[in-house]
Amino acid sequence: MKRVWAFLGFAACACAVAAAGPAAKPDIEKGRKIATQVCAACHGADGNSPSSANPKIAGQVPEYLQKQLANFKAAPGRKAARENPIMGGMTANLSPEDMRDVAAFYGTQQTRSGAAQNKETIALGRKIWRGGDAPRGLAACASCHGVAGAGLPAQYPRIAGQYAEYTDAQLKAFRSGQRANDPSNMMRTIAAKMSDHEIGAVADYAAGLR
After folding, report:
1. How far apart are CA 35 and CA 88, in angstroms?
2. What are the tens digits of pLDDT across the range 128-161?
3. Global pTM value
4. In three state form, how does the secondary structure of the chain look?
5. pLDDT exceeds cutoff 80 at 3
6. Distance between CA atoms of 176 and 55, rounded to whole angstroms?
7. What is the pLDDT at residue 6?
8. If 0-12 CB within 10 Å is exposed, 13-18 middle and 19+ buried, where does residue 158 land?
9. Environment class of 54 (CB within 10 Å of its CB; exposed 0-12, middle 13-18, buried 19+)
10. What is the pLDDT of residues 75-126, one digit of tens each?
11. Is 116:122 a contact under the CB 8 Å cutoff?
12. Is the dihedral of CA 167, 128, 112, 46 positive or negative?
């Protein structure tokens, strides 16, 4: 009798899963419309921001971008996981589906290549990016973001071609704790071991990756 009830319980769960069906696919056209109305003024129509104050999000890992949008949105009575007055306002009226769609749209766009500007720090930036600094416990950036900076779907963002000024600012924000939406304190732990000079070198080097 116990086996029968166990089977019926399993069957009920299976039916519930089947009824729920697979997750809906992103609506890229809807995402494009939202991007045009909400995001384009700062990030550009195709996600290639015209200003280094705002990140390039063209070609960004959709799952990462969706998470950031969700983190910017404050729940009722609670602070946002990633506080930013401008982005908080932009995401206030976006539903989870809207965020999924706009992230999927930008994920289909092509990132415009950047370039490293400081020849004096390229060697240092490359060293830290590819190999880190084992004696100090500083992990290589490439171990998560890839040698070419393309990121890893659903886990780590694309950094290749990103404005050096933006990457520099985010690493310093992680180091100070101003930004704290990294899983398991991963980026805060890494940035805490980096000097301003090292952060600048890595940010500039990443800008030239493609």
Report:
1. 15
2. 999 999 999 999 999 999 999 999 998 999 999 9
3. 0.88
4. CHHHHHHHHHHHHHHHHHHHCCCCCCCHHHHHHHHHHHHHHHHCCCCCCCCCCCCCCCCCCHHHHHHHHHHHCCCCCCCCCCCCHHHHHHHCCCCHHHHHHHHHHHHCCCCCCCCCCCCCCHHHHHHHHHHCEHHHCECCCHHHHCCCCCCECCCECCCCCCCHHHHHHHHHHHHHCCCCCCHHHHHHHHHCCCCHHHHHHHHHHHHCCC
5. no
6. 20
7. 40
8. buried
9. middle
10. 999 999 999 999 999 999 999 999 999 999 999 999 999 999 999 999 999 9
11. yes
12. negative
Residue 51 corresponds to which tokens in the numbers above? 């200003």
Contacts 24+ apart (CB under 8 A), 23-29: 24/97, 26/62, 26/100, 26/101, 26/103, 26/104, 26/105, 27/97, 27/101, 27/104, 28/101, 28/104, 28/105, 28/108
Query: Could you tell me the CA-to-CA distances from 41 to 11, 90, 119, 138 in Å, in that order?
Result: 51, 11, 32, 37
Nearest to 172, CA basis, from 194, 157, 155: 194
pLDDT computed for residue 22 by the predictor: 62
Q: Which burial class, exposed, middle or buried, applies to 182 when counting CB atoms under 10 A from its CB (0-12, 13-18, 19+)?
A: middle
Give the residue-averaged pLDDT of 42-70.
97
Residue owning tokens 């924000």: 173
Paired with 156 in beta bridges are: 152
